[in-house]
Amino acid sequence: MGYVKGLRCKECKREFPKEPIHVCEYCFGPLEVDYDYEGIKKVVSRKSIEAGPPSMWRYREFLPIDEDPKVGLHTGFTPLVRAKNLGKALGIKNLYIKNDSVNHPTFSFKDRVVAVAVSKALEFGFDTLSCASTGNLANSVAAHAAEAGLKSCIFIPDGLEAGKILGTLVYGTNLIAVKGSYDDVNRLCSEIAADHKWAFVNINIRPYYGDGSKSYGYEIAEQLGWKAPDNVVVPVAGSSLITKIWKAFHEFEAMDLIGPFKTKVFAAQATGCSPVTTAIKNGTDVITPVKPNTIAKSIAIGNPADGYYGVKTANESGGYGEDVSDEEIVEAMKLMAKTEGIFTETAGGVTLAVTQKLIKQGRIKSDELTVICVTGNGLKTQEALAAAFAPPQVIEPHLHSFEEIFSNSIMA
Ligand SMILES: *Cc1c(COP(=O)(O)O)cnc(C)c1O
Ligand SMILES: [Zn+2]
């Protein structure tokens, strides 16, 4: 039923069968899903997509499942918001926010990758889901495990935000906090994966998982009226999203769904964890792993799995990479909320603050069509803003109590 031919090594191009594997056994390159594009081209058109469901599954021919999707049927097709107020504040005329802070069901872009990974895990016959997560993936895997009726065991670094922890536990999973950073968690999970026949969505299911991210790029193009933007600014952790947005635009071009494009792809990281943007700035494609130290915990991966490809994407597209301090992240979160009424998490603060930097550097110009990627919800990272606001004024339930503070000009 599907259009997946198999897996293929991104480096040596050797072919592999559709299995829960992710590394080439010859050259250790990452495996990628290989599609029958000729077959897809015969059945897919703008019209057929527009007639599809209001979810990421309107692009199902481009997603790596063979049977009907089994979970996450309502995921994706999130708003592309024309951000006039924010654009004005930044001094640019043509700004959009792709808003996955309202993605179904766990309010981050991770629901896209997990919808695909869990549907695929069910096709493979797994009974247990697992992952190494910086928080949002944990939320999403736990929720989709509940929906699928599968067992789950989820690993996070200790010290994550309360919202990310409770937002995982509530689904009735086994949540394990590991002393150390995400990179320690990930290494441990690779060892566990050798002993337990579980579907680790971002390890042995990674080739399928990653392609869920493509839907974010497809939606940007469709929602812009079937064209790619001039610029897209992407928050980067493992570098899956940034490379797959780029892939999505290329696939749509090859399928004649959009015309030729010259999108510049910009990588956004926090200075406290910027292995990818540092490599871009230094003009090298060699990633030097770092020890993360930033409030942007959801994108704090010091040794990114696809970092090399993230750098390549920014360079190939003519984009760039920048990073910002924790203070700049907090200011940007507040600015987005104040101008657009969108409360993003720290990662969205990173994206916006980096965009501000790129505008100042002249890398993003006023009349260019720019999309910034908001990938997660601010209610999950409230700690970041804990010191930013005084508590509300408390009054007695009497008119004169209100008039008293009102005359003290609270409406300023
Ligand atoms: C995971 C995540 C990203 C980036 O993920 P990649 O690993 O680079 O694909 C961006 N924003 C948020 C909120 C995330 O949770
Ligand atoms: Zn290979």
Tell me about this structure:
The structure is a single chain. With 412 residues, the protein is α/β, with parallel strands linked by helices. The chain contains 15 helices and 13 strands. The chain has a 6-stranded mixed β-sheet, sandwiched between helices. A 4-stranded parallel β-sheet has the order 8-7-6-9. Strands 2-1-3 form a 3-stranded antiparallel β-sheet, covered by helices on one side. The longest helix is centred in the first third of the chain and has 15 residues, at 110-124. It is globular. The mean pLDDT is 97. Pyridoxal-5'-phosphate (PLP) is lined by residues 108, 110, 136, 235-241, 298-299, 345, 347, 375-376.
Quick summary of this structure?
The chain has 15 helices and 13 strands. It is an alpha/beta fold.
Task: Name the CATH architecture of the largest domain.
Answer: 3-Layer(aba) Sandwich
Low-confidence stretches: none
Number of strands: 13
CATH fold-level assignment of the largest domain: Rossmann fold
The whole-number mean of residue pLDDT values reads 97
Structural class call reads alpha/beta
Strand content: 5-15%
Largest sheet: 6 strands, mixed
* Count of DSSP-assigned helices: 15
Q: Name the CATH class of the largest domain.
A: Alpha Beta
Helix content: 25-40%
Q: How would you sum up the global shape?
A: globular
Task: Give a topology summary.
Elements: E1 4-9, E2 15-16, E3 31-35, H1 37-43, H2 46-50, E4 80-82, H3 84-90, E5 95-99, H4 110-124, E6 128-132, H5 136-148, E7 151-157, H6 162-169, E8 174-178, H7 182-195, E9 199-200, H8 206-212, H9 214-223, E10 231-235, H10 240-254, E11 264-270, H11 275-281, H12 307-317, E12 321-324, H13 326-340, H14 346-360, E13 370-374, H15 399-407
Parallel strand pairs: 5-13, 6-7, 6-9, 7-8, 10-11, 10-13, 11-12
Antiparallel strand pairs: 1-2, 1-3, 4-5
Helix pairs in contact: 3-13, 4-5, 4-8, 5-6, 9-10, 10-12, 11-12, 13-14
Bound molecules: pyridoxal-5'-phosphate and zinc ion.
